[in-house]
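Record now logged for everyone:
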Amino acid sequence: MNTLIASPSCLARSMQLARAMHSSAIQQAGRSKNRVAFKKYAATNRKEHAALYDEQDQAYTSMTQPDIWEEGDHHTYGHLLMESVRDVRRYVRQMKYEHPTLVEHAKPFRPPPASHILRFERSITMGERHLPSDRKVLLRVQVAQLGLKGPALRKFVLLAGSRYNPVTDELKMSDSREPSSLLNKRRLADTLNALIAEANKKDDSFADVPLDFKYCDYKPKAKFPLAWLPKTQQN
């Protein structure tokens, strides 16, 4: 026995329209405890009710018999497998026909010059967009290359705080407050310029504030004495 099936889109549309009419009636009635006069509301909104009845009539009149499955088609997992095969073939065609044309636009790698002392790092999650971790930018720079000396260098290290590593003489800062990585990169550059400008001021050198590197939990590794190794017997 064949079962008649209504069009899902028509039924969903009818349900959405009925739900919208019901909610609009409640909104007009307000939050009072009086019962909503749905018949009176329907009388004043005949066009919406006519549209609802037309949708329902169309849903029931568009009933069709389902196609008889003759066991000649793949199941769901078979279609998924075929879709993955199509993706692989598409990428293989791109590698064969499109990638060779990109050689004309290839540029040789040139390492940054020695004058570029700032190193910016960021991570990108492939297949995802607008992740908070993708806009985070990390700045690394060797403090010795900033050109600070004497009290200015000491004041800069004091202002940097735990972001300065006394073992590697490296300053590391990160920022993710801006909506894009480019703006975070600019913000880090401005922060570094502000630190250098403040360190070069001679109004207060903070000479009475000691440097404290307790945050740097570094334990030097002792080298094994080569004299303790057994001597090999010479033939």
Summary: Helices lie at 8-29, 38-44, 46-61, 76-98, 151-160, 181-199. Residues 1-7, 29-34 have pLDDT under 50 and may be disordered. The longest strand covers residues 137-142. Strands lie at 119-122, 137-142, 164-165, 170-175.
